[in-house]
Amino acid sequence: MSAPVVPLEEKDTVSVAFVLAAVARLNEAQRGRALAAAGIPAELLRAPQSRVTADAFAALWLAVARELDDEFFGLDRRRMKAGSFNMLCRSLLPAGDLGQALRRVLRGFNCLLDDVTGALALRDDAAVVTVALRIEDAEARRFAVETFLVLVHGLMCWLAGRRIPLRWAHFAYPRPAHAREYALMYSPQLVFDAECTAIAFDAALLALPVAQDERSLKTFLAAAPRSVFLKYRNEEGVAARVRRRLKPCVEAGADWPRLEEVAAEMHLSTNTLRRRLAAEGASYQGLKDALRRDAAIHLLTGSRLSVEAIGARLGYEDASAFHRAFRKWLGMQPGEYRARAHGPRPSPAEAG
């Protein structure tokens, strides 16, 4: 029987750092059930460079919410009970524009949570959302910020029906080990150990009309939370254009174009393309690596292709080059990752 082909477009992955934070407030039994419901083997949690599929993380978010009856991972003294996010989203549709809707979002969260507070202010031509916290544990504070800003920004983008680019994001805590994820989650312009936690965007965007209705709300909620943390990307930037150009190479196993070729196709000089990618916190090699990494994870966990076949499909001329690249990405060999992702094999007695 031939190995099934796994479609690779839009196959995103999430750092295991967020998985660890998501299950941190569960007891052992709850953690086991939540990880099993999401199809995430506990083995992966012991590999700090590991990643899981976006679908798996979305399933984990829902599983943790069921275990705790809390859609905010147990981070706040007041539980954000199941159904709270649905209710909040329904209150936003009558808003006349994004500014009014965003104020409703923040008021809603301020009613639902005790220890996390959001506020909107205008500073010259920037709209700034600040976050104040009353959570003592440093790890919980950081994950509360990450979760709150993902929810607020995700709702902003959905309400407007487009990506709302953030000018900058400041965080009142030290740079975490997984900080490189922040450039995609928030903005390439990051500051850590800041005086306060805040994100900023063009104030003119507050006048955008709310682009959603009851019908689109049902679709959005049916796909939540994945629709919140992944749906609206910056598809207008140079990095997104390069990513779209490279995706067929992953999907079809085609030859990868050189940077110079892509620059010419985009009517840019090679140096200009490099500079514009750098301004967005990206690089040509980094985009290639991220596409290959995420595709490799999906193929290792969702197909029967051999490690050698996966390396060839991703454009590596020999298996050793693929092994070296994968180890650089995740700190382990692809075969080891596949074994961990599939979990421990049952003993003969358990299998029988």
Automatic annotation (TrEMBL):
GO terms for cellular component: cytosol. Keywords: DNA-binding, Transcription, Transcription regulation. GO terms for molecular function: DNA-binding transcription factor activity; transcription cis-regulatory region binding. Gene3D superfamilies: Homeodomain-like (1.10.10.60). It comes from the Bacteria. The keyword Ribonucleoprotein does not apply. Residues 240-340 form the HTH araC/xylS-type domain. This is AraC family transcriptional regulator. It comes from Azohydromonas caseinilytica. The lineage of its organism: Bacteria, Pseudomonadati, Pseudomonadota, Betaproteobacteria, Burkholderiales.
